[in-house]
Amino acid sequence: MLDNNMSNKTQGTQKRSALGRGLSSLIPVSDLKREFIEKIEITKIVSNRFQPRNNFVEEKLQELVESIKEHGVIQPIIVRKVSQGYELIAGERRFLAAKRLGLGEIPAILKNVTDQESLELALIENIQRDDLNPIEEALGYQMLCSEFNLSQESVSQKVGRSRTAVTNSMRLLKLPEEIQNSVAEGAFSVGHAKVILGVVDSDTQLKIFNKIIAKDLTVRDTEKMVHTLSFPKIRKSSKINLERNRKYKNCAEKLRNVLDSSVEIKWSGEKGKLVIRFESEKDLEKIVRKISSQTTTQSE
What we know:
Strand 6 and strand 7 form a beta hairpin. The chain has helices at 4-15, 21-26, 31-34, 58-71, 92-101, 115-128, 134-148, 152-159, 163-171, 177-184, 190-196, 202-215, 219-230, 239-259, 281-299, and strands at residues 37-41, 45-46, 77-82, 85-90, 105-110, 263-268, 271-276. The chain has 15 helices and seven strands. Helices cover 58% and strands 12% of the residues. By secondary structure, the chain is α/β, with parallel strands linked by helices.
């Protein structure tokens, strides 16, 4: 028997058929039927310290509480053994709902996995269920990169997302905290946020953000505003210059995807300059490596 959570997972799997090797090798869906399920005392289970999800919708959590109250926990959670007992890998909402109901035990599958594999499983499960907000998802990718020294390409393979999707997601973390919080809360769209990333200066990003909120601007309106800021000399010129403007805007976007950094092209007459923003010396070295790598590839 499967509960509503498994049904949601099936739908999520259909939307993302290309699962990463991390999930398929660690927890094939068919294995859930073969593995031994045991009852574990809830007091012996601690939350996953690598859990990428921080926010839980109270209404949905309460619905799960009512479901478990009537039918019990039908789909087991997944845990691993740690020194203090067991650490949760997947099934955070079921675990929280069971605790809220005061249950003494919960059905669980015990997995022998590493810290990295634990994060992969937690991240993949939440992505499949569409449970993560955009900032939580970006932080999950960042943790895989920083904690376990994975490249964005490796992360994309493990979670079944394209490298561009992972890169664009992590770029959201370059925005000022106020904008990130608004995106996480669902008050500001990812589409708007991506357009704002086309502006290098964080103060200007905040000004645009506040103007979008105050005037309820669409993404297209925001694009026009950023367009004006990036190409003030060309905006009112001939059709040829407008075409050139669009061309170099596309160039800037391609560079942002390759370098994983804010890129801006500014024009003055027939001349211009390319502005690449970096946050630290380490970030600068990463950009130089990527440029060098591209140059080497082109020359081969």
